[in-house]
Amino acid sequence: MKQAGTKRLGLAVGILGFGLAVVGCGGGEGEGPIVPPPPAPAEYADKHMPAGWWADPKIIEEGRELYIGGKNPDVNCASCHGKDGKPVKAGARDFRNGDRMKMYSDSVWFWRISEGVPNTKMKPWKSKLSEEDRWKIMAFERTFGLAGKGWDPAKKDWVAADQVK
Questions:
Q1: Between the chain's N and C termini, which has fewer beta carbons within 10 Å?
Q2: What is the pTM for the complete model shown?
Q3: Residue 130's domain is classified under what CATH number?
Q4: Could you tell me the end-to-end alpha-carbon distance of the chain, in angstroms, rounded to an integer?
């Protein structure tokens, strides 16, 4: 009789533990619910990707080199976000998740790269990267989840990159 009760208790604890593990991991997503980021502060609100850069293969390749640490030994975005945009460290943003990333305007995304993200391991990069290099990295990063897209400030939306003026 005691063995049956112990087995049931063990089974219940196992099921509960599995359920908590799934919930704790965001059901496999790892980043939690998709919610809009806060708006960029005033000093970043009017900053936008330089004209033509979203669709410029040279800019995107330069951004890739910066992203993987090939041009600046102090900067290696891939060490947290992965070479393919799939995070390799807990808490890093998954750039492959287009539904999440499309919620970031270019100014918000640039702000986060520049100033970091409070209460996370994402540190500010403006002291290690020029403004131009931060835009190049961003042009590359968006190829993971928003390939072929560019932020249109007039429409306030992601559109075909060659349509951004």
A1: N
A2: 0.81
A3: 1.10.760.10
A4: 76
